[in-house]
Amino acid sequence: DAGVIQSPRHEVTEMGQEVTLRCKPISGHNSLFWYRQTMMRGLELLIYFNNNVPIDDSGMPEDRFSAKMPNASFSTLKIQPSEPRDSAVYFCASSSVGDEQFFGPGTRLTVL
Amino acid sequence: AQSVAQPEDQVNVAEGNPLTVKCTYSVSGNPYLFWYVQYPNRGLQFLLKYITGDNLVKGSYGFEAEFNKSQTSFHLKKPSALVSDSALYFCAVRDILNAGNMLTFGGGTRLMVKP
Predict the structure, then answer these.
(1) How far is residue A108 from each of residues A87, A90, B57, measured CA to CA in Å?
(2) Using an 8 Å Cβ cutoff, are B63 and B45 in contact?
(3) For residues A43 and A51, is the Cβ–Cβ distance under 8 A?
(4) Count of other CB atoms within 10 angstroms of residue A39
(5) Which end of chain A has fewer CB atoms at under 10 Å, N or C?
(6) d(Cα B33, Cα B92) in Å, to the nearest integer?
């Protein structure tokens, strides 16, 4: 199994640009999670989906952030417009019901 | 609501000595408890979990954790630390009553093992 796949691994963009992060969960997992990790704030849950349906998006910082899961094998996290304070490592994770979450390698986002 | 506390930002231990990384939790019902490890520039890796059964849980790389319901703790332990164990460790909890799979993570503890 390839595990959770995230792309790109690194993204450098300028303030105001749109950024799209992508995630492919482990096949058969029905829950998907987006996290953000920074030195200042640690690991934060942004949003999670069960069976492709968003369950809790209370962690999404503001309207500039949006996430979609059009099918069981793909999810996106979009930031529009991006700001320097969005610079962080963004992780995607997936799990089956009741099981541990498996994390992807992360996308390191730098907004200049 | 569920919460996790990792009271130590950093733990320092000499190679070959036993190590303990502390974790306490708060949930409304019965907990599922997890430990993850993060090496530099990597995602979090699952180490072990407690769901039910024996209070002492054994996991990857020689780590183990003890569930203590009365103290609401789930401390991570290893009898003999290795330099390669140096990493960031996260404790996480899920309330069984929670209908989803959401985990609440602690703030992380950096383990430094010195030769």
Answers:
(1) 8, 6, 33
(2) no
(3) no
(4) 7
(5) N
(6) 6
Tell me the C-alpha distance between A57 and B26, whole Å: 22
Q: Smallest Cβ distance to A105: which of B42, B102, B108?
A: B42
Per residue in B59-94, pLDDT (tens digit) is: 999 999 999 999 999 999 999 999 999 999 999 998
Residue A64 · residue A84 · CB < 8 Å = no
Return the beta strands (E) in B6-103 as ranges. Answer: 10-14, 19-21, 24-26, 31-38, 44-50, 56-58, 64-68, 73-78, 87-95
Name the residue facing A102 among B46, B51, B105 (closest C-beta).
B46
Residue A42: list chain B partners with CB under 8 A.
105, 107-108
State how far Cα B91 lies from the chain centre: 4
| Look-up of token digits 């199994």 | A1
Pairing of strands B64-68, B73-78: antiparallel
Instruction: Determine contact, residues B60/B47, Cβ cutoff 8 Å.
Output: yes
Residue A3 near residue A68 (C-beta atoms within 8 A): no
Please report how many Cα atoms fall inside a 13 Å half-sphere around the Cα of residue B72, on the Cβ side. Answer: 16
pLDDT of residue B28: 84
Q: For residues B2 and A12, what is the distance between their CA atoms, to the nearest angstrom?
A: 35
